Amino acid sequence: MLSYVDTVIFMSALLLLTGVLTTKFSVRFGMPALVLFIALGMILSRFVYYDNAEITQLVGTFSLIVILFQGGMQTDFKEIRPILGPALSLATVGVLLTSIIIGLCATYILDISLEQGLLIGAIVGSTDAAAVFSVLGGLNLKRRIASTLEAESGSNDPMAVFLTVSLIEWIQTPDTSVASMILSFFMQMGLGLVVGILIGFLAVLIINRINFDSSGLYPVMALGFAVLTYGAAVLVQGSGLLAVYVMALVLGNKELTYRRTILAFNQGFAWMMQIAMFVLLGLLVFPNELVSVAWQGLLLSLLLMLVARPISVLVSLMFTRFVFREKVLIAWAGLRGAVPIVLATYPLIAGVEGGQLFFNVVFFVVLTSAIIQGTTISPLAIRLGLVEKDRPQGPTLLELIALGKANSEINHIQVQENMPLVGQEIQNLNLPEDILFTAIIRGDKIITPRGSTMIEKGDTIYVISPKTKREQMKRLLGLKEVASEIP
């Protein structure tokens, strides 16, 4: 007979394996994986009673930290810099407009007070990084559009969190002034930005200089810095989620020891946290309660997709170079996911009147949005002609692997046609004796480098060199323009 602990462990294993396997269906149907994870939780809710909003919020917040950290680490700042203005406009003005429009609609549809309606609007105001990254990962969108959506989804959560917390405070303390809320917003965003930058540079410095005996400790340290960033920002009353995303941007755009190891670990851990979070969110809702708000939820979802989001996108991108069809796709790609559902637990925990109703309505809105928009983004992008056949690559792929406590490192370089060493024999590259080619991977073959070996486009080269000659190695191989490694 299994004990309670053994039963929980056994069930967790089944949930984890089932969650991983469902991602195959997610990719096949073009549907965000969160839908299947939530559905799994809803099915289990028929057999397992779970109603702990506090634990769900804790797991959800930690999951968002990991997801934003992973997303920021994979974002090349050079790619998002040209679209930083539009993305920030979507993340602030767009979220605010969406919240107001849906808030007004919810007030009449649900027959609740204006403050409660605006609270629902704020909760569903932001797009979801996990859902957007999941869908865009298999879709070769034009780089400018993809970068805008990724930057927006990674940076608009703080705005939604601020609006949600402020409106809960306003409901519970009606004499709260609007001026103090506006001041609080700028203070939170500013402090979050500063904390993210400072801890980001500190993390780069420490990770690159410390020498662990085990390479597996580097991703643990990086994740520790991400959690520290959130905690430090919240401690000084800044935006924790913004701080994490900014910190990850700094970390991901600097030369970093064991980059590939850190990314691989975080990718797997982020998936595990997504599975845990969405299953818990599915357990927290009871399907029979969703039926009672079905038509209200569906109407709000349609208004969100067809009215609120398009208006907010058109206004936010009014003075940008995006053409109409690009704005149409950006509007349709505003997927809702974990963040709104996690935020929906805030009124529950705060004891706001109608908290359970808000949660059920938001849950229904997110579920229908993810299913309808998630499965149609790809066909719409193709129909609008916004999918690239071959996405242009950056100048190189470079990964630094420190050799324990030694003073050398292995550089992993992907050769591309615009690099000057293409068509050159190794002996003609005039490399110093302590900068050596150790292996070349060409197709499915491993080639032993010799002086007469010619470098070809598409080769993967492994070069060992002293850490002190990293910049010299990059200059000799024509990598001067590489400011950071793009994994």
Descriptive tags:
487 residues; 5-stranded antiparallel β-sheet; single chain; 20 helices; mainly alpha; 5 strands
Plain-language structure description:
It is a single chain. The C terminus is likely disordered. The longest helix is centred in the middle third of the chain and has 32 residues. With about 475 residues, the chain is mostly helical. It has a five-stranded antiparallel β-sheet with strand order 1-2-5-3-4, with no helix packed on it. It contains 20 helices and five strands. The radius of gyration is 24 Å and the shape is globular. Helix 10 runs antiparallel to helix 11.
Shape: globular
Uncertain parts: 392-397, 480-487
Percent in helix: 55-70%
Helix run count? 20
Can you write the helix and strand succession as a string? HHHHHHHHHHHHHHHHHHHEEEEEH
Placed side by side, the strands forming the largest sheet appear as 1-2-5-3-4
Strand content: 5-15%
C-alpha-based Rg, rounded = 24 Å
Please report the distance between the alpha carbons of the first and last residues. 48 Å
Based on DSSP secondary structure assignment, what is the total number of beta strands? 5
Largest sheet: 5 strands, antiparallel
SS-based structural class? mainly alpha
